[in-house]
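Cast an eye over this sequence plus tokens and walk me through the fold:

***
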Amino acid sequence: MQKIEKISDLPGVGPAAEEKLIAGGFASMESIAVASPKELSSTAGFGEASARKIIQAAREAMNIGFETAKHALEKREKMLRITTGSKAIDTLLGGGIESQSITEIYGRYGSGKTQWCFQLCVTTQLPLEKGGVNGKIIYIDSENSFRPERVVSIAKRYKLDPDVVLKNVLVGRAYNADHQMLLADKAKEKIEQDPKIKLIIVDSLTAQFRAEFTGRGQLADRQQKLNKHMYMLMKLAETKNVAILVTNQVMDRPDILFGDPTAPIGGNVVGHASKTRIYLRKGKGDLHIAKLVDSPYLPNGESIYKINNDGIIDE
């Protein structure tokens, strides 16, 4: 039996099909192994039975199946952490924004969500000993809120060359939900071309979906599309060991009579896909509060910090 080492070795994959798979974003055995039959069928025109056979062969070649908890721990030990610029927030998050999963920050207008994005554009590029990962960034901007001059001012705080910092941030402006999803798909290609990309930012995750799908009649369609988008981002985080930071809008829940009625958009679809959820709100004066509301292994808690011309700093 022929040993399967590359895409063209997979059963039923000739040169033309290989080209279609690569053009559709399936440029590695790993990406094929974790794909669904429907994805392969629509990308390369395979029948569903053929697609299942190809995926199964890729999984067997990569020995994908169950693994021991020890192996899972070894993968977790390869996880990267990126400093937020605040020791208090880093402590709250167990060391910073982590790779291999999605971190969601949500809050009202003016709560500082986009400032976190600018901050991470810089701190990701710091050396390991300073809390960074020597990495590049992909920034998907769905609200036309990216401001390069803000990145420059934060770069100066860390004594980094602003021109170099800006060149290491790839910005894509998303004009609708489909375009946003396409940019996330393109991000996968970029990472495969340049492994130095260590962070993907989506600001905002839900703005385009919320604008396009209005009313209860379109809610199911919106959630289905949003679910696909989140799944794509989650798969990227896990397979490429990159950090994903998404910002989210909020709404007031009318059923909450006592306490804070603020809830993030996207319901369970976003809630289940985001492994770390942080609620941001404005405090008195120039103070801001970051509340960790959900994490698989960290306790809930709060941190107080400030945002000024230098970015995020400790109180």
